[in-house]
Model the fold of this input.
Amino acid sequence: MVGATIYSALVSVSKVGVRVKHADPIVTIEESVVTIVRELSLASTQEHLIGEAGVSVERAGFGVLRCVSERGESRVSDLAQVLGVDTSTMSRHVKTLVRDGFLMRTADPVDRRSSRVALTPSGGEVLGVLRAARHRYFSELLGQWSAQERDALAPLLERLATDVLARGARA
Done:
């Protein structure tokens, strides 16, 4: 029953209408995940979340702050690798976040040519506000779902995320 509930839950409504259920649940899951990722990655969605949070952070800044929060003090080049961007792009993002007081840059004690960045208290506060806005977004999105549907989806989605991360580490 839970499998059927999750299968039904993952058949999403897109901007062009209800998706057709496929005979192969893998196709349904694949298409649903692609739709979710695409929609949440849109500039308009990101800007909406930032606007709801009422903070002044570039779209890419949220990801950088989150990454530094999770990893702790990090080299700029390592952040670039984790987030899949060029080091020069990451350096620009970090420069803006340092200027705004959300990150603090220090020299790397091992390699003086590199720098390390850490979250400032102000950066932690902004990250908390952004996370709260994201939580409100998902609370509203899933507000019409029953507790049973949310409880069924949560561990399966967490497992999928864990498997995606583990596979990415092997790639």
User: Anything to note?
Assistant: The first strand starts at residue 13 and ends at 14. Residues 129 and 164 are 27 Å apart (CA to CA). The first helix runs from residue 2 to 10. The two ends are 34 Å apart (CA to CA).
